Amino acid sequence: MSEAKGLQPGTLPIRHMVQLAHDLLPFDSADCKDKIILDVGCGPGQVTEHLLEEYRPSLFPVSGDHHNNHNHKAHILASDFSAPMIAQLTSRKEKEIAKGNGIWECVDAKVCDAQDLRMIVRDRVASHVFASLVLFMLPEPRQGLSEMKRVLGRGGVAACTSWRGSEWIDLMRVGAASASASAEGKQEEEEIGAGDEEKVKWKGKGKMEIPKEWSSAEGVRREMEDVGFVDVQVVESEARWDFESHEGIVDLILGFPGMEIMVGESWGEGGREKAREDTSKYKSPLFPIPGYSQLL
């Protein structure tokens, strides 16, 4: 993390997503009264953190201070299928409150499947629902969209992000392929580079793959409209992730929670070392400068 020179890959999409949602329905508008903000597939809480840091005046319009604002209305419900992710967010909340940052008291974090949120949230209770880089990873993405629509109140805003393409996901595929090959006792001697789709296969318990319908503006619009969303807007933007060394990227990529989804129990003996070796060989067709890497 210390080697990062720019924003993490999901940060700019989060900023754009939240700003667009706020432009459509300001967090301090009358329509948001007594409603919740839902952060689906929250992970460690990037969307929740961004809301609290950048939109405090709108979330707490009286004084901007949780302890002094008895009429505050913000309530952020963050959910994730991963118990460790929820534990991490809960720990962050407790630390922030202990430091005197009482605004974090508005956050509740719950373990829940994005495809069925009925255990934690009722119908039509949310003013805003956010899903950052999560829907395309669900077994049934449309079910996740349907749940977002179910919990939205009248006039509410749902916002999500996906990738048209991403080199860091390509790197995860390379690492997962190498781990699986190692688990099977195979050795890949060829250098693996971008575009070698036939080489990038794995036998883990899941995969990190962007479905075709989630990798284009037209596809995303169709998915949302088909479950009943109206006035759908799809905005494309570019996100960059700058590093000074390939090693720094590799260490972070192999530590992503998504790697466990892709690899499962297939690391095998020496699998992590093999994954690190092959991922380090990755040659970016966009930024091949030695000693410097920039992932889209």
UniProtKB/TrEMBL annotation:
The keyword Nucleotide-binding does not apply. GO terms for molecular function: S-adenosylmethionine-dependent methyltransferase activity. Keywords: Methyltransferase, Transferase. Pfam families: Methyltransf_11. GO terms for biological process: methylation. It comes from the Eukaryota. CDD domains: AdoMet_MTases. Residues 38-159 form the Methyltransferase type domain. This is Putative methyltransferase family protein. The lineage of its organism: Eukaryota, Fungi, Dikarya, Ascomycota, Pezizomycotina.
